[in-house]
Design goal:
There is one protein chain. With 313 residues, the chain is mainly alpha-helical. It has three domains: 2-48, no CATH class; 54-81; 88-300, MetI-like (MetI-like fold, Orthogonal Bundle), CATH 1.10.3720. Helices cover 73% and strands 3% of the residues. The protein contains 14 helices and two strands, in the order H-H-E-E-H-H-H-H-H-H-H-H-H-H-H-H. It has helices at 2-15, 25-29, 51-54, 57-77, 89-104, 109-140, 142-157, 164-171, 175-199, 203-211, 216-227, 229-254, 259-268, 272-300, and strands spanning 31-34, 44-47. The chain has a two-stranded antiparallel sheet with strand order 1-2. Helix 6 packs antiparallel against helix 7 and helix 6 (109-140) crosses helix 12.
Amino acid sequence: MSDANTTGEGSSSAKTPASGVPGIAATAAAVIPVPSSDHGADTVWVEQISFIDRVPRAVSMAFVFVVFIGLWQLSTSLGLVSPIILPTPGETFADMVFVGKNLLSGGYMLPALWITVKEVIYGFALAIAIGFSLGVLVGETVFGERAIMPYLVAIDTMPKVAFAPLFVAWLGFGIESKVALAAFIATFPIVVGTAAGLHAADENARMLFKTMGASRLQTLIKMKLPSGLPQIFTGLKIGAVGVMAGAITGEFLGGGKGFGELIRVAASQLQTPRVFSLILYLSLLGLALYALVTATQRRVVFWQKDTVMGSHD
């Protein structure tokens, strides 16, 4: 009799394998059983994908864009926002066409865009060099984790805009101060991503390398860095977004001849369509840098499926 009860309990638990495990019941509710074609075989559980997750990315993005433009047009048409503060989508699009023609024809905006591009590229390269070096120091040594990381966190909590006048005083009104501020903003995420990647190495792999007599440098290069690439690229993505903000902030507060200066002049003249169009072109530049980092991640970290700005529909 006890054997029968035991067998009944075992079959019941086999039917509901996640009933007693916290956090698994919700996952079990998202899957459905599919009977196997072979008699006597175990039940195959298939994940049930919701309708919204089956919508292609292009359709989802187009829907969000249309809703956003519709709300924008509605707010301006009803007079909820002054046209001096918020131009209509039509006015913004017309000014974007003007800016695009100016760039393609080699007008005065093209040199300004090139200056901003150089500030972003140089700042990002400098941030990668400094951030990766400090990340290895923090993630690989106890001294770096205990003595260096607290200071990095304290510096990162400070308002970045307050450092712009200091960089201008130290480096002048040229491109150097903008590059320094851009690198200053983008460095910390790369430090954190690199250190987290080195700490994410599998403990069994560490013991294996130690058993095989691998040196600390060999373990770092051949095991820790490859296994930590996903976290490192996460830091690079965050840095790629922050470096654009640093360059434009430097141009706002420290002068310059880039797109940030054009935005400042247009804002002072209440040319809000021009401000919006220049900001949109800068966002395209930021998206291009982010896409470059994502494409590099796909090629280098080919074994990991990227789900942010890189998943396959």
